Amino acid sequence: MGPTHRPVARTDAPGPTVQSAGEVKINRGPALERATATRGAPRMLAGRVSHVRDGDTIEVAGTPVRLGDLDCAELGSADGARARRAMVSLADGAHVTCALDGRRSYDREIGRCRLVGGPDLARAMRDRGICGG
């Protein structure tokens, strides 16, 4: 008869722990540090918005950036087209700085961007009532 194995709870295991609605606490043990290092360290990106894909995705100096704290309607809908037009008027051709958090969604980096000398793009879109967050 072999040894008995039973699961052991690890306090250093990575993963989110939901604290309350909309709030997530991340367990920051050694395993998470290794996972973060392999995924890519957060970095800053600065440049001109070279293209607006939709209401919550821009390209900065050719790098696609998904605004992680913004949720706009899909481009195929009337609200999605309105969101894209609003982002074009706000940011197309403008200089921005982005804090990329190291995550990716499809071909896009995920982060927060703000106009140089101006507002956070996601907040500006939410304040205009165009998108949610």
Description:
A 5-stranded mixed beta barrel has the order 3-4-5-7-6. Strands 1-2 form a two-stranded antiparallel sheet. It is 23% helix and 37% strand. The chain is an alpha+beta fold. The chain is built from 3 helices and 7 strands. It has 2 domains: 11-40, no CATH class; 43-127, OB fold (Dihydrolipoamide Acetyltransferase, E2P) (Beta Barrel). Strand 3 and strand 4 form a beta hairpin. The model is unreliable at 1-38 (pLDDT under 50).
Quick tags:
133 residues, alpha+beta, OB fold (Dihydrolipoamide Acetyltransferase, E2P), 2 domains, five-stranded mixed beta barrel, 3 helices, 37% strand, disordered N terminus, Nuclease homologue
Task: Using the 3D structure, state the CATH architecture of the largest domain.
Answer: Beta Barrel
Lateral strand order in the biggest sheet: 3-4-5-7-6
Total beta strand runs: 7
Radius of gyration: 19 Å
Helix content: 10-25%
Shape: globular
Percent in strands: 35-45%
InterPro entries: SNase_OB-fold_sf
Protein name: Nuclease homologue
Characterize this entry briefly:
By secondary structure, the chain is α+β, with helices and mostly antiparallel strands. 23% of the residues lie in helices and 37% in strands. The longest helix is centred in the middle third of the chain and has 14 residues.
